[in-house]
Amino acid sequence: MPKPKMTRPTGLVPLLVAAIAASLLSVAAASNTTTTSSQPGRLQGLLVQVSRWRERHLAAPSSSLSGGGAAHGVRPNTVAAWVLSFLAASVSSAGGVGGGSLFLPIVNVVAGLSLKRATAYSSFMVTGGAVSNVLYNLLACAGGGSGGGQLINYDIALLFQPCLLLGVSIGVVCNVMFPEWLITVLFSLFLVFCTAKTYHAGVKIWRSESSGGGHHSSKEPLLPTDAQDGRGNGVGFPWPEVALLVMIWICFFALHVVIGDKDGKGVIRIKPCSVAYWLVTLFQLPAAVAFTCYILYAKRKKQVAHNQEDGKSDLVEARMDTLPSLTFPLVAFVTGALSGIFGIGGGLLLNPVLLQIGIPPQTTAATTSFMVLFSASMSMAQYILLGMEGIGQASIYAGICFVASVVGVVVIERAIRRSGRVSLIVLLVTAVLALSTVIVTVFGAQDVWMQYISGAYMGFKLPC
């Protein structure tokens, strides 16, 4: 019997090839010492010109934005940044990705803000998109939409959150110690790996849907429609789980506020790298272990009670039970560490990880957005407490991302309903990963090259 003809998405292949090529360029830019001294070449000239253009572009609007921006009105590049931010937020939120890797170059290059200020703005934008996405998922499930099941898996969020925040703290320390060229190369290679793995997973689901034999058919709801623990279909809200997540957030946030920034600016004056500084920092380890042990104990207790009640478990619970108990905490720690090293939100890393574990795409997107809300809001609150400038302008970007996230989720949900392909979420995540790979690698390679030819120190540093 001939196999049915299957369409295969091939538009992402050029992006993958471009990402790999850009990654190789970044390695060459960081290691080649003989060729550049004898032959500057076209690449060096191009990078120098782009760097000069960026410096002029950043210098021009920064003065007007800081003080006299109101007198001159809204600049055209600011409007362009708003439009691009809207598009980036729509695509990112639909796939459950925070979008920080897309927001950062938009605000930095197009809007003309410094990299430090653009990083703070990006945390506002990711938070705005995550709030919108989480509210939509909660309202959709309460109204019986989106397959009629509970999309956000709070057990996964609880298992990830403590070790994820611990990993971020350790990753930040590594970010300070590692040279920029090493971070650029590692990040580029990691994104290429995630892009390839996610693309293959999306193609596999696409083929399964085309042949009519997949678990993600439009005729079959992604999650069961019966109420589970009184929470399915919006019957009840998981207040204990959410309260515990908020408690974890407050605990780690309080520690970060006490520690302060790299200059020791916090609630109390603690000298960076002093004994008190490291004691407060290391306290995150027992806190994360204690929270994780309690969550694992509560999960096993609830699972036993649920099995005794009806002997059934949903699709996500069944897949989680096949994994060792420490799989999620360990994966969360590694993901958080990579997130801290690379200086981005966890959504770009969490989404591929959950997909590879075997969590359904819709549950992955909703749960990732929920976890990103906690991590991004913590970064945003830290920037506010540490005296961030331009909160009003950052709030405008956050509002744009809030609206754009709803648009993106609604559009992709309608596309899934019409096509019957949940694989669209996976392929959308692949597109965001590929685009982020190209953007981060190209600009990272340019910055590394300019540091190299200017004679800047490119070795490892001390944490303080």
TrEMBL record:
Entry annotated with the keyword Transmembrane: yes
Q: Which GO terms describe its cellular component?
A: Cul4A-RING E3 ubiquitin ligase complex; membrane
Q: Which UniProt keywords apply?
A: Membrane, Signal, Transmembrane, Transmembrane helix
- Any transmembrane segments, and where? 79-106, 118-139, 151-174, 181-199, 242-259, 275-297, 330-351, 363-385, 391-412, 424-445
The subcellular localization recorded is: Membrane
Signal sequence span is 1-30
Record's bilayer topology term: Multi-pass membrane protein
Keyword Nuclease among record annotations: no
Entries under InterPro entries matching the protein: TM_pro_TauE-like (IPR002781)
BP term (GO), one: protein ubiquitination
Family statement drawn from the similarity comment of this UniProt entry: Belongs to the 4-toluene sulfonate uptake permease (TSUP) (TC 2.A.102) family.
Its recorded name reads Sulfite exporter TauE/SafE family protein
Native organism taxonomy? Eukaryota, Viridiplantae, Streptophyta, Embryophyta, Tracheophyta
